[in-house]
Amino acid sequence: MNGLRQYLVITANYWAFTLTDGAIRMLVVLYFHQLGYTPFAIATLFLFYEFFGVVTNLVGGWLGARIGLNRTMQLGTALQVFALLMLTAPASWLSVPFVMAAQALSGIAKDLNKMSAKASVKLMLPKGDGNQDSRLFRWVAILTGSKNTLKGVGYFLGGFLLAAVGFRHALFLLAGLVFAAFVATLILLPGDIGKTRARAKFKHIFSKTPAINWLSAARFFLFGARDIWFVVALPVFLQETLGWSFTQTGGFLALWIIGYGMVQASAPRFFRKEHDGAGPDGRDARRWAFILALFPAGIAVALMQGYSPALVLIVGLALFGIVFALNSAVHSYLIVAWSERDKVAMNVGFYYMANAGGRLAGTVLSGWAYQTRGLVGCLWWSTAFVLTAWLLSFPLSNNKTRQTINGETS
Q1: Which of 181, 304, 349, 363 is the most exposed place for a label (fewest CB within 10 A)?
Q2: Domain coordinates of the chain in residue numbers?
Q3: What is the CATH number of domain 2-195+204-404?
């Protein structure tokens, strides 16, 4: 019961953080597009957000193993409050370097929080539980899926608050929410979650397990494929070409992420029959990556053939979201399941370093490809990235990978 209570506290903190993370992303994209920034200039605002996400995940797992995962989570939550308050500065201060610095802090905060929450899940399960695989997949899927649902609500909230109260007041409200979550974790969580008995060495942050390295490489291209067309290109296209308002744009992207999160949270039911109640394996990562590649390619072809852009994007994005959610659920489970308890923080940090690297590449390409080749060009880049993730998943296709990865069943 104690493990369940801690899981609920961590999940609630993750929810509050994610709500603000989605809202700030939409606020920055729409507000600076309104000020006349080009798509590529908007993309540059997020460069430090993604770059420092890579750096944070590189050292975050090591730091969590030394000081405890709850401490790294609390550090991330406090940094998010500070990053939000930075952006409430007078409009004359909001130069590109200033906003990039605020986004750098937000990127550090996000990845400290995410790494800590996901690595903690495995440590809260009792050892020797006969249903550990099934429960682990369910807890990871619920945490990740609910997070993405709340991020979708955050996208809508960002667009709504920008229209309703303006940029600065929206940021003050979001900072207050995150601060309340920070105080709750200080009161309700113990201080040693994930802290290892042996002193974790910095060199151990690089995984020596081949399957985790392959999975991390595939994750890089999987999430790069999404962000190539989703981060900058899609919201700018909806406003610029289709003439949608802030609220319409934020609401549409919010509905997509909410639906994506719901599919991700229900993934254990989808895979249960195929694996007799156990979690998925490496073959699922390979198969679903190939299926995913069909969708950005199909949307690109439909747009090139002159079909209604609004209809193509609504239907195509819904289908892409369902399949992408299943891919992400499989990946999120495998990295936790394949990690030993004493190394889970460092392995998860290494894995999400690759995730952040993919998002960084996707963000840069989203602005550049849209400005030079339009939305169709972004979609072809996305297709190429997904196919690369599929190829990198081939070493994971052996059904026995899970049993041999650590010399134990996890």
Answers
A1: 304
A2: 2-195+204-404
A3: 1.20.1250.20
pLDDT tens for 351-382 read 878 888 898 888 888 888 888 888 999 999 99
Q: Write the single-letter amino acid at 236.
A: V
Q: What does pTM read for this prediction?
A: 0.70
Buried b (16+ CB within 10 A) or exposed e, 324-359: bbbbbbbbbbbbbbbbeeebbbbbbbbbbbbbbbbb
Q: Residue 15 has which token pair?
A: 């929810």
Q: Which amino acid is at 215?
A: L
Scanning 231-343, the segments in alpha helix (DSSP H) are 233-240, 246-265, 267-272, 282-304, 309-337
pLDDT surpasses 70 at 201 = no
Q: How open is the CA angle 299-228-349, to the nearest 5 degrees?
A: 130
Phi-psi region of 206 (alpha: psi -120 to 50; beta: other; left: phi over 0): beta
Number of CB atoms found within 10 A of residue 66's CB: 17
Residues across the chain: 410
Q: Which two tokens stand for residue 367?
A: 């602005």
Closest by CA position to 230, among listed 110, 150, 313: 313
